[in-house]
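Lay summary

Proteins are chains of building blocks that fold into shapes. Our project writes down both the chain and a compact code for its shape. Here are two examples, one after the other.
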Amino acid sequence: MGFVASKKMGNAVHRNRAKRLLRAHFVESIECLAHGTYVLVAKPALLEESYLITHKAYLHALHKCTAT
């Protein structure tokens, strides 16, 4: 499992917050995932939205990835 946030996200505080959010989303949905290697890349929009909105978007993206 890898969590990535580039310097385009902002300073270290913003990058770390983005990675913490990605980890939280991942932990909440870990039972839905197949075994494997995952790399989640943070985008600047992650910090602009609320947790519930980003979690819903995360689940939608996860569903799209597992459906194919």
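And here is the second example, written the same way.
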Amino acid sequence: MSSKIPAAISFTGVANFLGVLGVIGSLIFVGLELRQTQRIAPADMEQRRSLLTAK
């Protein structure tokens, strides 16, 4: 008898798993973008304020 392990993984299961990974990755990416935007916003506002008072 052969001792091979049956690979009974369905295509639908693999596609669902990859979809979940994609959604999680997208959420992480959006969270990092939001954090970066919140860090940049105060510096941008300060720069605009200094340009307006310098004129």
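What can we say about the second shape? Residues 11-54 form the longest helix (44 residues).
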